[in-house]
Amino acid sequence: MSSETNKLLCAILTSILFLLLTSFISELVYKSDEINKNISYIIKDNSKDEIEDPELKEEKINKEITNASLAKLISESNELIGEKFIKKNCSACHEFSLPHKNKIGPSLALLLNRKVGSLDDYKYSKAFMTKEANWDLLNLYYFLKNPKEWIPGTKMSYRGIKKENDLVNVLKFLSYNTADGS
Ligand code: HEC
Known about the structure:
Radius of gyration: 30 Å
CATH superfamily of the largest domain: Cytochrome c-like domain
CATH topology of the largest domain: Cytochrome Bc1 Complex, Chain D, domain 2
Strand content: under 5%
Shape: rod-shaped
Number of helices: 8
Bound molecules: heme C
Number of domains: 2
Number of strands: 0
C-alpha cells in the first residue's frame, strides 16, 4: 500500500473512532441527566407531604387527647421526675427560672398561658411569630410530642418527647414551675 492510502485509512479510522467516542459520551451525559431528573422528582415528591395543611393535621391529632383526659394523666404524674427529665433534655437550650434569660432557645420561665413566641428579646422563627396560640397544657402536649408537626418550620431542633410518661411528667413540672423555678 502506498503511504498516501495508509494516511487516508488512518484518517478514516480516526474519524470513526471519534464518532463512536462522542456518541458514547453523549449517551452518558443523557443518562446522568435522566438520573438527575429522577432524583429531583423524588425530592419534590417528598416535599409534597410536608406542605400538607398544618391546620388539618392539628385538627386530626387534637381528636386523640382532650383537656379532660390530659388533666387526668397529669394528675397521676410526678413533677420531680419531670424536672429531672428537663434538666437532662432541655436545659442545654432553655432556662426555666426568672429572670428571663435566653439561650439557644427562649426563656421558659412562667411559660404556662404565655402567648406562643411572645418574648420581645428573643428572635423566634417566622413559624413561631405567626402562630396564633397560647401555651396551655394541651398545646404544650402536642408541641413537645412532635415540635415540627405542631409548628412546621420551627427552628427548635429537638425531636420531641417520645414516651407519654416523660411528657406528662414534664407538663406537670411546667405547670408548677414558678418564678424561682421551684
Ligand atoms: C437544641 C436546642 C433545644 C432543645 C434541646 C430544646 N429546645 Fe425548646 N426551643 C429551642 C428553640 C431554638 C426554640 C425557638 C423555636 C422557634 O423560634 O422556632 C424553642 C422553643 C421552645 C418553646 C416555645 C417558647 C415560646 O416562647 O413560645 C417551648 C415551650 C420549648 N422550646 C420547650 C422545650 C422543652 C420542654 C424542651 C425539652 C424537652 C426543649 N424545648 C428542648 C431549642 C431547643
